[in-house]
Design brief:
Residues 1-32 are annotated as: Disordered. The protein is mainly alpha-helical. The chain has one domain. It is built from 16 helices and three strands. Strands 2-1-3 form a three-stranded antiparallel β-sheet, with helices on both faces. Helix 2 crosses helix 3 (77-89) and helix 3 (77-89) packs across helix 13 (298-310). It is globular and about 60 Å long. It starts with 34 loop residues before the first helix and ends with a helix.
């Protein structure tokens, strides 16, 4: 029989993380904006088309992750900022819904969103794009903060590198056999873990999983006590780039050349629902293509920007990305100039994207923010 500890995450206990207030130090504590608050604030700014403020915040977080990169550096700030503005200005409703945290939920009932997505799927088979995975149940509802902590508990057990009771070995075996390829229980008893192994147990993967678990703890701690059993406002996610997204998403669905943090999480959710009956609902990864890339210089920037905009990083509890975005996009160089022209034409700009930019500016489609206009005009005249 498999057993697992049930933590009451609503209270302070010796086994779970503490929510006890710190002792007063005489100084007023500086309150840090939570992940949910930041994303909600960004949504309000984007609805008002105040793009530049959001872009600057995203870039401030993301660009520090790169060293000596040919694209992501200070010298390219005007180009990067302008491409980010174009991404926001041309964002389909599916990307807007992802930013607002309602994509998996709304997609099930919004016929217009479904129709738009059908066209995006069709084009994504021949056009580079950005995709996202969102952890949600069959109704598109995210796990609660307390449920996310239960997932963390299981992940911590999974990465233990010491002798374990038979019941714990059986539990790990169930996780490693929740999806193919299957793992023999003798291998599990010997210390093998499907998602921690390369040619041997990977210390780097263990460290990433430790960051993932600490990120979940951080997100739980910043969640108000009264909200711990409410669905997270934004589903944990993963963001990526693909030259042929439908094929790449099929690989992810089959856990092939995929994100091991995301795959382990999905298998843990299967065990928690199917075997342990601790979750009444089955959480799985919902896949969406959220942006069609139509300019060659967008390939790296779009993945970096969307990953930051959706806050899908292990370190803040936002998701499953653990490696800087935009560093594995070489396949975009296989797209010919003629194909890029066709993709731009499908976007609506024809062969002359500068003309499209001017139409957007004169038509007020980017809002009336003067800083935004100045940046765009600077890039056009550059």
């Amino acid at each position: 029989m498999v057993t697992t500890t049930r933590h009451n995450y609503d209270s302070v206990n010796d086994e779970g993380p503490s929510r006890q207030p710190r002792k007063p130090t005489g100084k007023a504590p500086v309150r840090t904006e939570t992940l949910a608050e930041k994303r909600s604030r960004w949504v309000m700014l984007l609805r008002k088309q105040i793009y530049l403020e959001v872009i600057n915040e995203v870039l401030e977080e993301e660009l520090n992750k790169y060293t000596n990169n040919r694209i992501f550096n200070k010298a390219n700030m005007v180009m990067i900022t302008t491409e980010c503005m174009l991404i926001l200005a041309s964002a389909p409703r599916v990307l807007q819904a992802a930013v607002e945290g309602v994509l998996a939920l709304r997609f099930l009932v919004d016929r217009e969103l479904q129709e738009e997505y059908e066209e995006i799927q069709r084009r994504a088979d021949v056009q580079p794009s950005i995709y996202v995975h969102l952890l949600a149940d069959e109704r598109g509802v995210a796990p609660t903060a307390n449920q996310y902590m239960v997932i963390r508990d299981m992940a911590l057990k999974y990465i233990i590198d010491s002798h374990m009771p038979d019941a714990e070995i059986e539990l790990i075996g169930r996780i490693d056999n929740a999806s193919l390829p299957s793992v023999n229980i003798r291998e599990t008893s010997g210390g093998y873990r499907k998602y921690l192994w390369t040619t041997q147990r990977s210390r780097r993967r263990v460290q990433v999983m430790e960051r993932f678990c600490e990120g979940i703890r951080k997100r739980w701690l910043e969640t108000p006590v009264q909200d711990l059993d409410l669905p997270l406002a934004h589903s944990p996610g993963e963001c990526g780039y693909a030259i042929h997204a439908p094929r790449r998403l099929l690989q992810h669905r089959n856990h092939l050349s995929s994100n091991y943090v995301m795959n382990l999480t999905e298998d843990i959710c299967t065990v928690l629902h199917r075997d342990l009956k601790l979750f009444p609902q089955l959480f799985r990864m919902h896949q969406f293509i959220i942006y069609l890339i139509f300019k060659p210089q967008q390939a790296e920037i779009a993945e970096m920007f969307c990953s930051g905009l959706l806050q899908v990083w292990v370190d803040n509890g936002g998701g499953f990305n653990h490696y800087p975005a935009g560093l594995s996009n070489a396949s975009a160089s296989r797209v010919t100039d003629r194909e890029w022209d066709e993709h731009a034409s499908a976007f609506g700009g024809g062969g002359d994207l500068m003309e499209t930019w001017m139409e957007m500016i004169l038509g007020g489609d980017l809002g009336t923010n003067r800083s935004t206009m100045r940046y765009i005009m600077l890039f056009i005249l550059h």
